[in-house]
Amino acid sequence: MSILEDGACQPNIHINGSTLDRAKAKEDxxxxxxxxxxxxxxxxxxxxxxxxGVGEAxxxxxxxxxxxxxxxxxxxxxxxxxxxxxxxxxxxxxxIRSDFGAGIRMVEWIGFKQDAELxxxxxxxxxxxxxxILGDT
Length: 137
Prior knowledge:
Elements (H helix, E strand, L loop, with lengths): L1 E4 L11 H10 L5 E6 L2 E12 L2 E8 L7 H18 L4 E7 L3 H10 L2 E6 L9 E7 L3
Helix pairs in contact: 2-3
């Protein structure tokens, strides 16, 4: 598994439909990376700065992410730490579905700590968990 950085693309990997639309919407909002395993895109992640010192991380995964989560967390951990340092962030947050166990385990392993729960946050009334990494800790 490897990480492709900065506007990541690779020959013979094609995305389309709603995935392409989401990727294009995020393209100019901040740094991003793509994780690829044996020619298959496994995840795309990025970070958007809201205002000086505060950003929000995002990630889109394949459906069978559970089998990749430990390797992804190992790859993404230094990337997230670099974003905090490179963008001089005192807070980087991530919003995770409360029913997404693999995502929760991954952000916790990367170093995010849970701050809050947002009841009925998503369209299907599933709660969201707010996680953050504080740059001064």
